Amino acid sequence: MKKCLVLLNVCLLASSTRSAVHVFVQDSNGAAAIKYECTAGEVVRSFALDVSLDKGRVVGITNFFRGISKVGAQGYGIFPAAFRDYITVSSGTNANWTVSGYTPLAVVADSPGNTLPGLNSNGVTLELGGLWDAATPATFPPAAGTLCLLQVSEPAQVSVAANATRGGVVSASSGVSITPTFAGALVIPPGHAPAITNQPASLTVCAGSPAVFRVGATGWGLTYQWQVSGAGGTAFTNISATATNANYTNLLATLADDGNQYQVTVGGAGGPSVTSAPPAVLSVNAPATASAGSNQTICAGSSTAGLGGSVGGGATGGTWSSSGTGTFAPNATTLNATYNPSAADIAVGTVTLTLSSTGQLAPCGAATAQVALIIRGPVGIQLAKEVITISFAGGELETAPAVEGPWTGTGNRSGTYTNSVTEGPARFYRVHYP
After folding, report:
1. CA–CA gap between residue 190 and residue 59 (Å, rounded)
2. pLDDT for the residue numbered 399
3. Considering only CA atoms, which of 230, 220, 236 is closest in space to residue 276?
4. Distance of CA 282 to CAs 226, 233, 249, 278, Å?
5. Which residue has the higher pLDDT, 419 or 298?
6. Which of 98-107, 173-182, 198-207 has the lowest mean pLDDT?
7. How many CA atoms lie within 13 A of 353 on its CB side?
8. Cβ atoms of 224 and 246 closer than 8 Å
9. What is the three-class DSSP state of 279?
């Protein structure tokens, strides 16, 4: 039996013909299948291969043939280092090939500088050879097949190459020299298929505001495509070529968008695409509007004319407020209410009345509008002992030599003006309100 093992590792030097064998990696349900294909009828005696990952670890090896290739059970089942360490031939060629530990993994200690670290690392070196009856073609290993499956810890690019020190890919014929070709592949283990963890939620926004839909997903190499339906969810179309992120933002929702339904298809390299469900519904409420009417000017002791308040959009009513301390009649929620200034309002001479809308649907906020109210206070004139006293509130006292002017401001505002009266041209006074 040992003679057979020696033959497995002999590099055949005589070469009159060259042939190509393709060795490649293929994703097989999340495992890295190490495969071979003889392209021109050649037969391989042994493979010595280095398999490496760009990230993650090789965590297991399965699905390899064991033992001698024979009729009905052909393959590469002789692993030199493992044979030495685990296989005992009881009599003749009888051996227990199912012993634990008998795998194609090379032993690092046999050639530390030319062997990848092994399981639970990012690379393994494999040694697989074949023994068969040369006189019986039905015992030859197949022209194409799987050498083994390697389990990986995470998605990785898996590469395969010849381990030249251990012989690489060796032909079974002394007249044939094999020039192998190699190809790697992306391998994605189970558990990395696209999966939606947080479905997009329905939203209610105010027209003119953005609406942001979000999806939570797991998987590897994820892609996103958001879709919209304006037909009650009976048909969805892709929104745009840019709606391809985990979040989709309708930058300016309009009332025409009310009732639209949104969904997202999440794809990935790890499995089939999934689509969110149920669709997220967008509700768009009308923003409120408000108008307070025109500014008004009144005399002290009077109330305003009906205030010209109005609301619209999503608003159903409004409430008046004042920068002063007066009151609204019949109440502050009547849009065309009147305003009765307080004594403090009259003394100041002006107040600002604000109408705030009510009844609008969330999240739309209240709309506001303002109107200015100017209050002309009473003017009192008293002449005593050749002294004229003018009392007024608000505005500025002006004087002129004639009714038609020109009028000149005295600089006196909201107070009392006194002046001596002497014989001379007449003087006229008035209070000017802005």
Report:
1. 13
2. 87
3. 236
4. 14, 12, 12, 13
5. 298
6. 173-182
7. 34
8. yes
9. coil
Give 194's pLDDT tier (boundaries 50, 70, 90): very high
Return the number of other C-beta atoms located less than 10 Å from residue 40's C-beta.
Answer: 11
Query: From residue 57, how far is each of 53, 193, 299 by CA, in Å?
Result: 7, 19, 90
SS (H, E, C) 151-167: EECCCEEEEEEECHHHC
Using left for φ > 0, alpha for ψ between -120 and 50, and beta otherwise, residue 377 falls in beta
For residue 301, what are its two tokens?
């002791």
How far separated are the first and last CA of the chain, in Å rounded? 119
**Which single residue is written with the structure tokens 């600002």?**
352
For residues 29 and 88, the answer to whether their CB atoms sit within 8 Å is no
Q: b/e per residue, 135-162, with b = 16+ CB within 10 A?
A: eeeebebeeeebbbbbbbeebbebbbeb
Contact at 8 Å (CB) between 47 and 117? Answer: no
Does residue 59 contact residue 30 with C-beta atoms inside 8 Å? no
Q: Which two tokens stand for residue 169?
A: 């890919």
347-399 pLDDT, tens digit per residue, is 888 899 999 999 999 999 999 999 999 888 777 788 777 788 887 766 788 88
Write out the two tokens for 225. Answer: 């495509």
Q: What type of residue sits at position 373?
A: L
Q: How far apart are CA 234 and CA 294, in angstroms?
A: 50
The single-letter DSSP state of residue 67 is: B
| Contact between residue 155 and residue 192 where contact means Cβ atoms under 8 Å apart | yes
pLDDT of residue 414: 65
pLDDT, tens digit (0-9, with 9 covering 90-100), for 400-433 = 888 888 999 888 876 778 888 777 788 888 877 6
Residue 239 token pair: 């929104």
CA dist 147 and 152 (Å) reads: 16
Which burial class, exposed, middle or buried, applies to 354 when counting CB atoms under 10 A from its CB (0-12, 13-18, 19+)? middle
Amino acid at 434: P
> Rounded CA gap, 31 and 193, in Å?
14
Q: How far apart are CA 174 and CA 157, in angstroms?
A: 35
pLDDT at 196 over 50: yes
Q: Distance (Å, rounded) from C-alpha 32 to C-alpha 186?
A: 9
Please answer whether residues 35 and 145 qualify as being in contact, where contact means their C-beta atoms are separated by less than 8 angstroms: yes
> Between the CA of residue 10 and those of 147, 167, 171, 348, what are the distances in Å?
20, 8, 10, 112
